[in-house]
Structure formats: C-alpha cells, structure tokens
C-alpha cells in the first residue's frame, strides 16, 4: 500500500510537512483562517475521539468506532460542503458530523445507544450514522436524484470505507449515478482494512478510484492524510455536482491508528511496523502542524491553548450527555416492531 | 464506601473478562483516566481507565480471576480535598487486606481458550468450560468438545438416578401451567391456538446457580441421610413465645431457633462445618459457624450468609435473618453478603415436602434441608398418640464424611429440639 501512495492525483502537504511544487500554488490561495480551521478542527476531532475511547472503557458509552488517523480525510472533505448539501455518514464519521454542526452531545448520545442522539438540529441535512455497510450509497444517490429533479443546487455525499466497495450497493449506486449524471459524491476513506481484511484481499483492482471508469464518472485518488489535497478534491467534486456534470468517486487513502471498534484488537492482523509507519511518519495533524509553524501561523503556546480548549469542549459535552435523564427500561422495545412478537411482549411485561 | 468501578462490556456483548494485570495497588492514588487494570475478553486485551481521581480503596478480584460483566472490579475513594484523602489513608492502615478475607471463597480459575459462539453454547448447555478438555489448536475448546461433555453429563445424570433406588426421590406436585400470554398478535394468526412452547434463556443469576450446581453434583460424590426428629420441646416453646409476642418484641418463628440449634450442633461436629479444597485435596475446618440460608426469590435460590451464628442470640439471628431475606427478595444483596458460609441450611418448611436430596454448596461439605414441623401419629409406650416431628435431609460429601458422621449430627440436633432447654448447656 505504501508503494501505491505514489499513485496520487495530486499532493499538497507531504508527510514531513513540506509543500509540493503544485501544492505551493494551492496553499497561496488559501486564507489564513482556512489554514487554521483545518488544524483546529482536526485537533478538536482527535480530542473527542480519544475521550470517547476512554468513556467506552469506563462503561459510560457503548461500542465506539475510533477514527484517529482519519481526521484529514473527514475534516478536509466536510469543510468543502455547505448547509444545503446532504451527508450520508457511516458510523466512523464523527469528524464529518462535528464539522457539519452536529453537537458533540448528540454524537455522544448516539454512542450511548440513545435514540435522541439521532435527533439533529433543525435544518441539518446529516443523516444518522449508517451501521450496515454500504446501504447509504444508493440512498445518497437517491437524494441526489431528488435534488436534480427539484433543481436544487445541492450535492449528496455518501461516506464509506474500503469494505463497502465490496458490496453490491456500491455498484448499484455508482451505476445509477453514472447513467443519470447525478450530483452525488462517493467519498471512500480507504483505511486499507475492512475490519481485518486487507484491501488486496477485497479487490483485484489495486485502487478504488480506478473503478469509477466502469461507471463513466471521474475517480480521484488523494492522500487522505493530506487535509488540503482532500479539500481541493472535494471542492472540485462539489462544483462538478452543482454545475450538472454528475457524480464523482473520491478515494482518500488513509489509515486508522486504532482498532476497527472498541471490541476489536487490531494487533492480531496488522504488523506493528506498518502501524508505526502510519502513526509516526504519516500522521495528518503532525504534518500540518509542522507546516503552520514553519509559516509562522502557529506557536507551541497556540497548540497547547487549542488542545486545552478542545478538551474543555469535549468535557462540557460529556457532562451534558451524561446529565440527560435515563429512559424508562421498556423504551428498549420501542421503534423496532409495529406489532411486537410474543417473546418480546413477554420480556417487556417482565421489565 | 468508594465509587465502585464495574466491569463494562468492553466488547460487543461479552459476558465476562479475565483480570490479566492490576496496574495499581490498594491505597494507591490514581488520576482520572489513568489505566488501572488490564483485562482480556473473548476478543481483545484492553486497559481500563479509572473513571475518577482518588485513591484505590479496595481491589475485589485477583489476577487470573474471571469477572462477569457488571461486577465491581475495584472501589475508588474520590478525592475532593486533602481532608478526605488523609482520612482514607488512616482507615486503610487499620483494615486487613481485603484479599485475605475472602481468599477461601475465591477459586483461582484460568480463562479457557474458546470462541465466543462456543462459550454461548456452553452457557446454554450448562457446561462449565473449565471442565472441558479442548481438542482444538493450542487446547482451544471447540463446539464438539462442549457437546461431547454435555452428552456425557446428561448420561451420567441418568445413571446416577437409576442407581439411587435406595434414596427416595422427591415427588413433585404437578407443574402448574404458566399463565397465558396476553395481547399477542400471533394468537389470531394461528387460529386462536396458544403457542405450544416458549423458549426462555436462563437469567444471569440462574446461570450462576446452574454452573455451581453442576460443578457440585458432578464433582462431589453426594450421599443423603434422612431422619425424623422429635421436636416436641421446640413446638411447645415456640407456641409459648408466640403467645408472649408483643408489639415491642416481634414474634420469633421456628427458623431462628433451628439455626441456633444447628450452629450448636456443628460445634459438636466440626467435621461438617468445613470446606473442601479440590486442588489441594484438603479439608479446612472452621471455628466460627457461618450459615448460608437458602432463600427462595423471584430470580431463583439465593444464599445470604448469617455470620458467626454460634456467637449470636436467637433474637439477633431472627433480626438479621429478616433483614437478609428482605434484601434477597428485593435483589439488593451485596456479593459479600453471599460469601463465606461454612455450612448451608435449606429451609423448605413453609412449602412442605418430606424428603429432598439437597445439593451441597461448594466448597462446603454438607447441606441440611429442613422440612415442616408437624403433628404426626407416633407410637409412645405402645400407645398411638400425636407427636410433633420434623424431617431433615442431610447431603454430605462422601469423600470427607461418612454416614455415621451424618447420623451423629442429626442426633445431636434432635437433643436440642426435643428439649431446647439443652441449649442452656451450650451457653458460654
């Protein structure tokens, strides 16, 4: 996989925090605020992710899907979207949801198994996290189709992982999107493992982006840990969608630092050297930090202050979420069956 | 009392975890989110972080113990200011290390290698994985292994019951039919017919009971001694107590008196007031008598412990028993209140029955079932007359006790019940 990191459509920030030649032009165009936004959001997301893992280990939230390592892919892409765009996230898109304005309290409530966690702010176009793999792809395609028919200036984005590309839904969604030139973006965070199955055991085609050709839509492959490259790719896809040019498949190549979920042990299927390489040498936050410091936009004091501020934001959200009163025990039976089966009626009576 | 840190479900639907390593000691200060223990589930080894800052007050499990999800792993005294911390340290010095207290009760058990689906199968078939020899890679227990053991157990149970023709089997009353389920849509679908059966998985309490009973009945060679005791004195004295009962002094039933008499009898027969260590093949006799008293609750049979019954008055026993029974029925017994018994009494008195073959509460070596105190026709001096009698059934571990020990014990018990005045002789 490291070899295939050379096959990127374009690069902006290299792992060591240097700009590429073409990156320098892009970087110059970005405002100071935007550059700092990338950084601040990534730090905020990582703080939340770390805290969530601890909360799970203390039994305060349920199973959690860690996302550290994928901050650039999520923050870079989400910052290219606007209020009118639809977001169809998988369960790992905590970072996307935060940027899209979902309160941290709601995100925590979701992981606490609370249905209230899926009640998003008025006007939000973010769908609740999809746990079944790839079901959100045809649905995002459908939402884009609706927008096209209504002549709304919006795109729909389906977020998914490399594992989802092995599902039938992936083909169906991309096929329709290609045929009807729909304003949909298929954003794949290829973190290289579908739980424990490496990408090479899922696909004979070496990259996800190549598959776009089969549907006659553009496929873009970027370094998913290069927040600026991800952002530019997403901006292009959004602009194509809104100008009626149809769908785009983006492959952001990244790596999750931790396990698939808090119930998983990634050391059983990933080599320590591989993890070390990605965590130590290819971290998305570190490279931007180096660049921003070199550009004089960030000091060590700023970093400390922002990390502390982010921690406070997370702590506040934890307090808020934990102070929500517990639901009645029989709420467990709500929202599943219209007519409950016999054994559940009995169980509900015994609660 | 510190803040209890309960073992969370760190995987998705794991039932238990093994304590691999404690990263802190009792009395040690911890900060919030500091890793305190490493546990291994079916899926992964994980570090658990402290939910609060403070001082580790009590560590409840040892390395190697298998802990069910939801049990308290450790207690942390929260630090708010230096004052509470100082108090906590002073207290910790006075207290004996908690590990020793319940050491005898805790069995050290290594976690068996098995897939989660195999564990579930074992739970469903009431097979203790520790009793299964794994034939898979690295000694992993496979589903076939579990099924093989389950089949063997079923077979051996069948053999035992056919060979035990000497022991009268309890005659069960017809099982009352369960109340019909109401408000179900499926009844109409199947043409007004109620479901032919319903499947119900064992509750967690029931599974623990099942595992313990299976262990006892398969590992301990049980023999049961039945006796009819003359309880004339007990019946008359209790009737007098009943007449004297006032608002100030609550009525004392048979059970507290019986427990006192049993405690006194065990002092005479310390062989029965003992634990048997399976690994060391060693019997540990206890000086104090701590009686486990089986209580019938909605969740199943629970056995709270009446500590040092030999040192307590009948009045104290009555009060404590009332409290324990109440807590058991409310489901509020603390795990400590069910640990440390040296002998168990199963009181079937209120429900009736004449004989039973109670199963020993491991690692104890004997258990006594008490049947109703009732008037029966008896022959005295060649005359048929009415007499107060009570049946008892005493199961014992035949490896460490013999029939003669059992008979001597119930005879001693009879002397106290025929004439409770004999209890005076035991006063210290």
UniProtKB/TrEMBL annotation, chain A:
Q: Which domain of life is it from?
A: Bacteria
Cofactors demanded by this protein: thiamine diphosphate
Bilayer-crossing regions: none
Alphabetical list of InterPro entries matching this protein: Alpha-ketoacid_DH_E1_comp (IPR050771), DH_E1 (IPR001017), PdhA/BkdA (IPR017596), THDP-binding (IPR029061)
Tell me the Pfam families matching this sequence. Answer: E1_dh
GO molecular function: any one? pyruvate dehydrogenase (acetyl-transferring) activity
According to the UniProt entry, what is the EC number of this protein? Answer: 1.2.4.1
Keyword Ribosomal protein recorded? no
Q: Which UniProt keywords apply?
A: Oxidoreductase, Pyruvate, Thiamine pyrophosphate
Sequence ranges assigned to domain Dehydrogenase E1 component in this UniProt record = 39-328
Its BP terms in the Gene Ontology are:
branched-chain amino acid catabolic process
The catalytic activity, as recorded, is: N(6)-[(R)-lipoyl]-L-lysyl-[protein] + pyruvate + H(+) = N(6)-[(R)-S(8)-acetyldihydrolipoyl]-L-lysyl-[protein] + CO2
The UniProt subunit note reads as follows: Heterodimer of an alpha and a beta chain.
User: What's this protein's function?
Assistant: The pyruvate dehydrogenase complex catalyzes the overall conversion of pyruvate to acetyl-CoA and CO(2). It contains multiple copies of three enzymatic components: pyruvate dehydrogenase (E1), dihydrolipoamide acetyltransferase (E2) and lipoamide dehydrogenase (E3).
Q: What is this protein called?
A: Pyruvate dehydrogenase E1 component subunit alpha
From TrEMBL, chain B:
**Residue span, Peripheral subunit-binding (PSBD) domain:** 113-150
Q: Which Gene3D superfamilies match?
A: 2.40.50.100, Chloramphenicol acetyltransferase-like domain (3.30.559.10), E3-binding domain (4.10.320.10)
EC no. given is 2.3.1.-
SUPFAM superfamilies the record matches: CoA-dependent acyltransferases, Peripheral subunit-binding domain of 2-oxo acid dehydrogenase complex, Single hybrid motif
Which terms are listed as keywords in the entry? Acyltransferase, Lipoyl, Pyruvate, Transferase
Q: Where is this region: Disordered?
A: 88-111, 155-200
Give the protein name, as stated in the record: Dihydrolipoamide acetyltransferase component of pyruvate dehydrogenase complex
Question: What is the organism field in this record?
Answer: Melghirimyces thermohalophilus
């Amino acid at each position: 996989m490291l070899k295939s990191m050379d096959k990127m459509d374009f690069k902006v920030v290299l792992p060591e925090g240097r700009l590429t030649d073409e990156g320098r032009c892009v970087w110059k165009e970005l405002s100071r605020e935007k550059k700092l936004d990338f950084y601040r959001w990534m730090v905020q997301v990582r703080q939340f992710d770390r805290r969530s893992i601890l909360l799970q280990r203390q039994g305060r939230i349920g199973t959690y899907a860690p996302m550290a390592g994928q901050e650039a892919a999520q923050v870079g892409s989400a910052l290219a979207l606007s209020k009118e765009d639809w977001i169809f996230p998988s369960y790992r898109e905590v970072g996307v949801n935060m940027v899209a304005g979902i309160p941290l309290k709601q995100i925590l409530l979701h992981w606490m198994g609370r249905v209230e966690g899926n009640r998003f702010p008025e006007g939000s176009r973010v769908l609740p996290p999809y746990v079944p793999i790839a079901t959100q792809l045809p649905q995002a395609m459908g939402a884009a189709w609706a927008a096209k028919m209504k002549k709304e200036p919006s795109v729909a984005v389906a977020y998914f992982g490399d594992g989802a590309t092995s599902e039938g839904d992936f083909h169906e969604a991309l096929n329709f999107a290609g045929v009807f030139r729909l304003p949909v973006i298929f954003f794949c965070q290829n973190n290289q493992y579908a739980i424990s199955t490496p990408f090479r055991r899922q696909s004979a085609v070496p990259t996800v982006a190549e598959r776009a050709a089969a549907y006659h839509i553009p496929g873009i492959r970027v370094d998913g840990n290069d927040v600026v490259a991800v952002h530019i790719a997403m901006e292009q896809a959004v602009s194509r969608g809104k100008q009626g040019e149809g769908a785009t498949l983006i492959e952001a190549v990244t790596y999750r630092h931790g396990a698939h979920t808090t119930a998983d042990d990634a050391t059983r299927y990933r080599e320590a050297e591989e993890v070390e390489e990605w965590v130590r040498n290819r971290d998305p936050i570190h490279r931007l930090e180096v660049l921003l410091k070199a550009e004089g936009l960030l000091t060590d004091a700023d970093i400390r202050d922002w990390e502390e501020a982010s921690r406070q934001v997370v702590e506040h959200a934890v307090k808020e979420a934990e102070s929500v009163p517990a639901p009645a025990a029989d709420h467990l039976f709500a929202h599943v069956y219209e007519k409950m089966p016999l054994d559940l009626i009995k169980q509900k009576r015994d609660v | 009392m510190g803040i209890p840190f309960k073992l969370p479900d760190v995987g998705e639907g794991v039932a238990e975890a093994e304590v691999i390593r404690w990263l802190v000691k009792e009395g040690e200060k911890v900060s919030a989110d500091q890793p305190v223990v490493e546990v291994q589930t079916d899926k992964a080894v994980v570090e658990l972080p402290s939910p609060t800052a403070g001082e580790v007050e009590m560590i409840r499990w040892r390395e190697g113990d298998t802990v069910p999800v939801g049990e308290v792993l450790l207690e942390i005294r929260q630090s708010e200011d230096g004052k509470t911390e100082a108090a906590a340290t002073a207290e910790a010095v006075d207290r004996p290390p908690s590990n020793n207290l319940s050491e005898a009760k805790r069995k050290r058990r290594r976690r068996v290698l098995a897939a989660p689906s195999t564990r579930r199968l074992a739970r469903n078939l009431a097979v203790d994985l520790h009793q299964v020899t794994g034939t898979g890679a690295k000694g992993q227990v496979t589903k076939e292994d579990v099924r093989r053991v389950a089949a063997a157990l079923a077979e051996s149970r069948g053999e035992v019951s056919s060979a035990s023709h000497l022991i009268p089997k309890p005659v069960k009353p017809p099982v009352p039919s369960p109340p019909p389920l109401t408000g179900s849509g499926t009844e109409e679908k199947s043409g007004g017919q109620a479901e032919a059966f319903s499947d119900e998985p064992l509750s967690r309490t029931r599974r623990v009971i099942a595992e313990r009973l299976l262990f006892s009945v398969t590992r301990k060679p049980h023999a049961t001694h039945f006796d009819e005791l003359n309880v004339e004195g007990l019946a008359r004295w209790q009737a007098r107590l009943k007449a004297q009962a006032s608002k100030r002094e609550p009525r004392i039933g048979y059970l507290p008196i019986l427990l006192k008499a049993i405690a006194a009898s065990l002092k005479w027969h310390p062989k029965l007031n003992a634990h048997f260590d399976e690994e060391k093949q060693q019997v540990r006799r206890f000086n104090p008598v701590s009686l486990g008293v089986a209580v019938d609750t909605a969740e199943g049979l629970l056995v709270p412990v009446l500590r040092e019954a030999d040192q307590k008055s009948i009045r104290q026993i009555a009060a404590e028993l009332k409290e324990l029974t109440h807590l058991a029925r409310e489901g509020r017994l603390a795990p400590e209140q069910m640990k440390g018994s040296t002998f168990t009494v199963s009181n079937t008195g209120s429900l009736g029955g004449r004989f039973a073959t109670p199963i020993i509460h491991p690692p104890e070596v004997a258990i006594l079932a008490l049947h109703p105190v009732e008037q029966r026709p008896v022959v005295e001096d060649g005359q048929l007359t009415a007499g107060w009698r009570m049946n008892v059934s005493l199961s014992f571990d035949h490896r460490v006790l013999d029939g003669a020990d059992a008979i001597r014990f119930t005879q001693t018990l009879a002397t106290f019940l025929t004439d409770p005045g004999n209890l005076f002789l035991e006063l210290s």
